[in-house]
Amino acid sequence: MRKNKPAREKERQTATRNRRELIEARLSRRALMKLGLLTSGGYLIAKNGLSARASGGDPQSPPTRPFIEPLPIVPVKQPVAGLTPDPTVAPNKAAGEARTRNHQALARFPPRKLYEVHQRAGLVSMSPDLPLQHIWGFDGITPGPTYIARYGEPILIRNFNDLPADNGGFGLNEVSTHQHNGHTPSESDGFPCDFFGPGRFYDQHYPNMLAGFDSTHPPNGDPNEALSTLWYHDHRVDFTSQNVYKGLAGTYLLFNDRDTGDETTGFRLPSGQFDVPLMVSDKVFDENGQLFFDLFNLDGILGDKFLVNGKIQPFFEVHPRRYRLRLLDGGPSRFYQFFLTDLNSPDTPLPFWQISNDGNLLPKPIQVTSVRISVAERADIIIDFSQFAGRSIVLENRLEQTDGRGPTGNLLPAGRGDRVLRFDAVLPPVADNSLHPAAITKFYDLPALEPPRVVRRFRFERNNGQWAINGKFFDCNDVRFRVQKNSAEHWVLQNNSGGWQHPIHVHFEEFQIVSRNGRPPQAVERSRKDVVRLGFNEEITVFSRFRDFVGPYPQHCHNTVHEDHAMMLRWDIEEIGDQRTEP
Amino acid sequence: MARIARRQCLEMFRSGRLGTRASAAAAGQAALPSPRDAIRARYFPNVVLRTHENRPVRFYDDLIRDKVVILNFMYARCDGVCPSITANLVKVQTLLGNRIGRSIFMYSITLKPEQDKPGALAEYAAMHNVGPGWLFLTGDAADVELLRRKLGFVNPDPALDADSAEHIGNIRYGDERRQLWGACPALATASWIVESLGWLDGGSKGL
Q1: What CATH fold (topology level) applies to the domain A273-439?
Q2: What does pTM read for this prediction?
């Protein structure tokens, strides 16, 4: 177990407080210089007690004012009438397609909507107190455009790599876009080794079919396997952390005839402008105010600025009614525990409703006072702002984390955490046709578990700083085990890395936690998931099915710095699987 | 602390006088170091090292600048992870053939410069059948420690960091001209390490 030295903890808390006081005191430049806290170049002097990472040599971001810009609402991606040349089952290499394997299901699920997206460089503002930032984004923006898709409506995205050769300091202009975590055929999943360089394209076919359509629940799949909040991000092997930090990520929403996207029908969840994805990421900026990525970090990268939908600490003006907010931890390495805080009365717990885990609606809404998410985890929540009419409420991360190893386990006092987003309930009252979450008695049933065909064990380890699974390192060409198509397995995930925590992600089908340290899952962990937080010395058993498609997929730590340093393995779905128990 | 009017403060922020150079950058002033220079300044101190052939070299100017490199840390008397790492990197060198020393450069820096003088490193290289073009490096202890920290071969747990047997067993690879820097376990298969280096030549993989 990791020990947290009280002195260091105190130093960190002092640093956080000092920085906040400096920003909130609204001191003039001259006053700051007088106090010896500002350089002539206009930057806060980095000294112990000011830097959150005082013991290291990492840069500390210049000060920025919180809550001065509105929350960006990311544009919805619009389809195109046609693609030239037409999509083909076999890779169209002559036209410049980089895909290497045939589409498994293009003929069976012909796309009803076609999209064209270009990954390219962009220049964006993350705060008016910082220079414009050079990013890479889908369509040149970050987050990339939001896809709104429906079950039973297959789509195809032609994904162009228009990234420049000059990376501006970090990032590699080769890409493989992972759809996290659709029931997607391998060749469209964004496998880390399916990357391609600039000047080429890759057709990604998303059938938007429920798991089981070709196996346990023909012909339309198991409705209880529906997903709602997905995201997409670059997954280029060894360079994912750099490329995602640089901006290559966006949101993908899936609706169906129950979770309809219309609050007057189905589950009647808040919809339209009242249904808002919130991609949270932390970043750090150098002494010139430029986005900084620590190229030589093996542990995990923490930022001292918190961005939501691409802006540092925005505000969001809301109507006094219910909203569905889709929280995503966009990484690279931080774990969060979000609370709602009224800064005028920080110790008053403010309950809200969690309705999904990793984008999968829970059996029914659960009232909570916080949600905890690690990298790539999602949580859809419902907040009723009518109770806060005229007030401002802060989305506050109170989970303390001081380095890439994971959170310390301490909760910061209410009002002393990281203020990520401020809701201002200042807009006029409007109709609310959504149901009160307490009145929703059921979303989906958890799919029944069946005996596993094989139980496999995975030790997540660190040997001389080398991240490993079962003592081995990732290699694109090494198929560590073969899963039998349309079978079920138990995977036992063990954290033997001593003092480190890992958000473990399994591509393809959602799993269910069978046990965490020998005990059945509680509350919001009684759900389908695709990322699980594996804490110090924990052992988690998950159940998963592998239906309908074949091909390679990875399992990996989603601390993107760990995954880039080989904490990943490849497994393939094939007609006949193997029995390797410690692959 | 001094109290300044909110409006006054906001004006200062807007004008870029407090805390940022937003307006300067927006106006196109090119005062910033290039990304390549920023990386050099942050990670590559130009300290003088000595090769196992007893030749003085400057770390950035002679070893990093304009080159594709593989870097790791080791020490000659390490009986833990080092021998297998060195043996693995010998395989890498064999696979890369005469590209080593011409278009790709391999460097192993000792963690124990007091013990590992050039002669000891030359002996170590010979014992492991290391071919030409792969340099073992030693130097002033403070310089080597500076390099280790700058290059991130550091354990966040100070107790583990102080224990040489626990030293970081990764290799860094990179192309200095293109600002591409990655890392992988030094005990990854030699073929995988070579494939990783191949990425620096551009192109795509695909299964």
Answers
A1: Immunoglobulin-like (2.60.40)
A2: 0.89
